[in-house]
Automatic annotation (TrEMBL):
SUPFAM superfamilies according to UniProt: D-aminoacid aminotransferase-like PLP-dependent enzymes
Organism (species): Natronoarchaeum mannanilyticum
Protein name: Aminodeoxychorismate lyase
Cofactors that this protein relies on: pyridoxal 5'-phosphate
GO-annotated biological processes: amino acid biosynthetic process; carboxylic acid biosynthetic process
One MF term in the entry's GO annotations: lyase activity
Keyword annotations from UniProtKB, A to Z: Lyase, Pyridoxal phosphate
Length: 288
């Protein structure tokens, strides 16, 4: 396996960053998790834009164009002969003199990691195409005025602490905001299906603007399924007709149960999953 580190393709075992790197020291870094289908990055422009926003929030000026970042991803996929892959692009502030206060003389570290990820997951290794068992957690989502959820940074302790609460067999932690409304999963967005359409927590709350979330909203609009964003209590999830999670690797993942209460997928989740598949096929395999 080869990874891209600071402009060089290096064997994975030699792909290292300094122990003084601020991504390691403080989580002072931004990243994107993407998926390559047929060699092209699904929703690249949206990922590039979100990464730029995260870097702006952190004040990391890496000085690379989106085209250069895309080129490094393509080189990493090509070097590993991968077409369908998980792709992680991380940009840390790098090493700098001094302590916590970020300084403009830091030299950002840019890393691309890829792993094979065929559609449907890697057999035996992952089960994310199975419906998810979800658990609401005591750990609350960090409020936006403490750490803006829209910035996808290397500081994932909030989700890690929530997932530490999971009982045996649970797949995803569902975090509530400071008011007790559901916000999102540790690494996923939440959708509820009601008789009137689909619902998802508003981005006014501490919710990462998921790229998959946005695609699902677009697909629902095209299919004339009404989409609502708002505030939802844990009981709204438990009483939903259907519910599902979204993220780049899971795509749409039905929620089997939350806190032991059965929900399950259903016709709307199935329809949106099929539309999502068609979009991937059309854009990445049929040369649309
Ligand atoms: N919310 C959080 C906290 C995440 O970490 C992720 C993805 O990792 C998502 C939502 C889903 O975002 P996306 O669809 O862009 O993968």
């Amino acid at each position: 396996m080869k990874y891209h580190v600071d402009g060089e393709l290096v064997p994975a075992e030699n792909a290292t960053v300094s122990v003084e790197d601020r991504g390691f020291q403080y989580g002072d870094a931004a990243f994107e998790t993407m998926r390559a289908y047929g060699g092209s990055i699904f929703e690249w422009s949206a990922h590039a834009e979100r990464l730029a926003g995260s870097c702006e929030t952190l004040g990391i000026d890496h000085g690379l164009s989106d085209a250069e970042l895309r080129k490094r991803i393509r080189e990493t996929l090509d070097a590993n002969d991968l077409a369908d892959a998980y792709v992680k692009l991380s940009i840390s502030r790098g090493v700098q003199e001094g302590k916590l206060t970020p300084r403009p003389d830091a030299d950002p570290t840019v890393v691309v990691i890829v792993k094979e990820l065929p559609r449907g997951g890697v057999e035996g290794a992952d089960v994310w195409d199975e419906p998810a068992t979800v658990q609401t957690t005591k750990t609350r989502r960090i409020p936006d005025n403490a750490l803006p959820a829209e910035a996808k940074t290397h500081n994932y302790l909030n989700g890690i602490l929530a997932r530490r609460e999971l009982v045996e067999g649970a797949d995803e932690a569902l975090l509530r905001d400071a008011e007790g409304n559901v916000a999102e999963g540790a690494a996923s967005n939440l959708f509820l299906v009601g008789e009137d359409g689909i619902h998802t927590p508003s981005l006014d709350g501490p919710v990462l603007p998921g790229i998959t979330r946005e695609v699902v909203i677009e697909l629902a609009d095209e299919a004339e399924i009404p989409v609502y964003t708002g505030s939802y209590a844990p009981d709204d999830v438990r009483n939903a007709e259907e519910a599902f999670l979204t993220n780049t690797t899971w795509e749409l993942r039905p929620i089997e149960s939350v806190d032991g209460i059965e929900i399950g997928g259903g016709p709307v989740t199935n329809l949106l999953s099929r539309l999502f598949d068609e979009r991937v096929e059309r854009r990445h395999y049929d040369g649309d």
